[in-house]
Amino acid sequence: MLKIENLHAEIDGKEILKGLSLEVDAGEVHAIMGPNGAGKSTLAYVLGGRPGYEVTQGSVTFDGEDLMDMEPHERAAAGMFLGFQYPVEIPGVSNVQFLREALNSQRKARGQEPLTGGEFLKLAKEKAGLLKLDMEMLKRNVNVGFSGGEKKRNEMVQMGILDPAFAVLDETDSGLDIDALKVVGEGINAIMRKPDKAVLLITHYQRLLDYVQPDFVHILSAGRIVKTGGADLAKKLEDEGYDEVMAA
Fold it and tell me: What are the residue boundaries of the ABC transporter domain, all occurrences included (predicted)?
């Protein structure tokens, strides 16, 4: 589904990714872990198409298409979703309005009919239920006045509504308490744990992986993947730390 080969990327002239290669197939969950400054968020931004990040070498294909040739909205319409470490607030725009426009824009790009207001609200209520988010929250402005946990749950509702084929989740566990972590983890499983979907989870800690069991765990250091293993690798990192595990 996603194939990254020898990816080099920089921002403001500073190289961050230095030959990263990774392949993610449908039905898989891959976790990326690594110390601060390793390039984890840069990888997420490059895949999402954030301005300012320049790919200088290598390739990324998504379902056989050159991802780097697509604009951010084209990547979204093709089935890619980027979950932010710090979801942004959009004053003056309600969640319902924002999500209905986003979904129908993607449906139009795919040659599908737009959802009616009633059809959309039914879908939104279903996905909000998965994340235990009150529908009243969806009537409020996007993330305005939301707690950190509410922002992350709201973002997962967005993911459920947009129904991507591939999700890149950048530190989705950041700012979550124990209860919210469980709700978000179960929501990710309900939405994305399917044979035709895949997830790239970027995280500092093993705790989210207790709920979203990865098929593969990769350690990213100094802009490239230096070690790959199963779910037990995350537990080992938690117990021993990066330096000791990478030196082994």
Answer: 2-247
Which parts of the chain fold into alpha helices (H)? 40-48, 72-78, 95-109, 117-130, 135-138, 148-162, 178-192, 231-240, 242-247
pLDDT in tens, 223-247: 999 999 998 888 888 887 777 777 6
Contact 59, 65 (CB under 8 A): no
Q: Which residues contact 57 (CB under 8 A, 6 or more apart)?
A: 6, 7, 8, 19
Domains of the chain from N-terminus onward: 2-247 (3.40.50.300)
Distance of alpha carbon 165 from alpha carbon 11, whole angstroms: 28
The pTM (predicted TM-score) of the whole model is: 0.88
In Å, how far are 56, 113, 119, 136, 245 from 97, measured between CA atoms? 38, 17, 14, 13, 47
Q: Which is nearest to 120 in space by CA: 142, 105, 131?
A: 105
One-letter amino acid at 221 equals: S
- Token pair of 108 as six digits: 């139009």
Helices and strands, counts by H and E, the chain: 9, 12
Q: Within a 10 A sphere around the Cβ of 54, how many other Cβ atoms?
A: 13
Q: Which of 101, 80, 106 is nearest to 164 (CA)?
A: 80
